[in-house]
Inverse folding.
């Protein structure tokens, strides 16, 4: 399960090939990927792709003094002629692939080590691994346990020498050695998301996503449900190359705490880089407009979203923060769900989390058929029901002496997007397999009665109070995320444009301090009673 290596063989299209080729060049000329070769008509699209991938490797070999030294004179002559070729033929492609597959690319071991130890730091901002992860027999790196190389492969060699000049091993590790039978519970909230799992000692652990891992405050576990789009296309390119644990970068898309921090003080059209309504988007049927640092783009409604899905990406980040070489590999996930969402909406949330979490897991899990079948993402319980279980257990109602009589409970969950309620009975189980039994009497809620939605409704009413003045200044507004809104109230001044949405959010953000102050005063007066 831990394999000693002195070199690394990878399939030609593997993303590590490009990264290691770049590092082999050091200060030499970098490969110009924008220079498009011209092919003869008979060359297939598949072979065109292979040739372009091989050019990265050929460039690295030709511009690395150590690698070039081992090339035959004939092969060096071929590379020189290839650079002058006006059109690329099938014969030239075949010869190029042969040279690439039979030659070695030499890479500085320190460069390689730095890349591999920072892989999860680059992806999601986790702490970099210690060098023992790569060099110790008890360690080993998941991402070096690569799939069997195809005919078109690339071999990398490293100057990993001990003090006596002897070549040392580094280690690949199968993640099947690190499976954890525990369950991860995820509460995907409107304003924040929490995730927890049980560690090897049986202790429940909460998860922090993003840059607050070392913060002593408990607020680090309230992960803001927000995504920041920075270099969306670059992220998608990296995300799509591999089915599992792709080499993505969090500076292309940020989530949770880092995204929230970056959103502070942002104004104008830059607000469209931030998507803080993931859960409302899932419960509505509306197209959304966004931008990143490069360009504008649109998202279809959640129901019709077939491609880039921010909820899937958010789940992927959660998965990478849980499933890594600091921790273990978890295969069972339970999601809480809002009661009033339509069945197909809740199921699509589940599917989005399933795809994102699956993407975050190492490849070995799915190469092993028996292990792959144990991967599950389930909608396990409604959000107020989950709270009821947690509250009853925290008050000691799981102890047998407190279960002599049934305990009747009622939970009202006033969240950021919805209000849900659940009533039922908690009692001792008659089955020896379980400690307690929970019976639901009733559940329900309001799909729109949430704090964030009420804030938008308040902004809408503030706009109404000042409508004549704002009308004269040609200020438009968007419809708040609330039902029973009179869409004719402001005529053509109610729009779904970028400016209208921005105005609604700007008014809401100005009202937020008032809303919080009012809530604090209400709670204080309520306690005095």
């Amino acid at each position: 399960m831990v394999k000693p290596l002195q070199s690394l063989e990878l399939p030609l299209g593997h993303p590590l090939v490009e990264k290691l080729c770049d590092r082999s060049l050091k200060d030499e000329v970098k490969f110009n990927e924008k220079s498009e070769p011209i092919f003869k008509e008979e060359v297939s699209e598949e072979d065109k792709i292979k040739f372009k991938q091989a050019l990265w490797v050929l460039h690295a070999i030709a511009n690395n003094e150590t690698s070039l030294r081992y090339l035959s004179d004939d092969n060096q002559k071929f590379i020189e002629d290839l650079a002058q070729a006006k059109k690329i033929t099938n014969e030239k492609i075949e010869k190029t692939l042969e040279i690439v597959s039979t030659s070695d690319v030499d890479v500085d071991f320190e460069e390689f080590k730095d890349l591999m130890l920072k892989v999860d730091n680059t992806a999601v901002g986790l702490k970099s691994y210690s060098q023992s992860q790569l060099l110790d027999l008890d360690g080993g790196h998941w991402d070096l346990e690569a799939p069997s190389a195809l005919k078109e492969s690339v071999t990398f060699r490293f100057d990993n020498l001990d003090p006596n000049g002897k070549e040392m091993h580094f280690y690949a590790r199968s993640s099947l050695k690190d499976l954890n039978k525990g369950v991860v519970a995820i509460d995907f909230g409107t304003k924040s998301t929490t995730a927890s799992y049980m560690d090897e000692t049986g202790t429940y652990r909460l998860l922090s996503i993003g840059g607050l891992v070392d913060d002593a405050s408990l607020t680090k576990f309230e992960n803001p449900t927000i995504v920041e789009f920075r270099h969306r296309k670059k992220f998608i390119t990296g995300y799509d190359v591999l089915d599992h644990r792709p080499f993505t970068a969090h500076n292309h898309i940020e989530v949770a705490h880092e995204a929230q921090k970056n959103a502070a003080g942002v104004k104008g059209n830059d607000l469209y880089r931030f998507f803080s309504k993931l859960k409302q988007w899932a419960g509505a049927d509306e197209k959304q407009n966004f931008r990143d640092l490069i360009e504008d783009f649109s998202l279809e409604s959640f129901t019709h979203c077939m491609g880039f899905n921010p909820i899937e990406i958010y789940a992927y980040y959660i998965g990478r923060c849980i499933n890594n070489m600091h921790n273990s590999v978890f295969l069972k996930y339970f999601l809480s769900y809002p009661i009033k969402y339509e069945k197909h909406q809740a199921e699509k949330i589940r599917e989005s989390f399933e795809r994102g979490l699956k993407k975050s897991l190492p490849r070995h899990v799915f190469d092993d058929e028996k292990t792959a079948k144990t991967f599950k993402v389930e909608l396990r319980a409604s959000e107020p029901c989950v709270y009821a279980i947690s509250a009853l257990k925290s008050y000691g109602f799981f102890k047998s002496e407190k279960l002599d009589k049934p305990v009747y409970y009622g939970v009202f969950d006033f969240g950021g997007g919805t209000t849900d309620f659940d009533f039922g009975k908690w009692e001792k189980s008659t089955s020896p397999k379980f400690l307690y039994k929970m019976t639901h009497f009733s559940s329900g809620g309001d799909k729109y009665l949430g704090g964030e939605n009420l804030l938008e409704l308040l902004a809408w009413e503030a706009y109404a109070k000042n409508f004549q003045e704002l009308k004269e200044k040609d200020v438009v507004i968007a419809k708040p995320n609330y039902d029973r809104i009179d869409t004719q109230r402001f005529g053509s001044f109610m729009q779904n444009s970028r400016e209208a949405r921005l105005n609604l959010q700007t008014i809401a953000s100005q009202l937020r301090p008032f809303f919080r102050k009012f809530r604090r005063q209400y709670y204080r007066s309520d306690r005095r009673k």
About this structure: The mean pLDDT is 87. The radius of gyration is 28 Å. The first helix runs from residue 15 to 24. The domain at 177-382 is CATH 3.30.420 (Nucleotidyltransferase; domain 5).
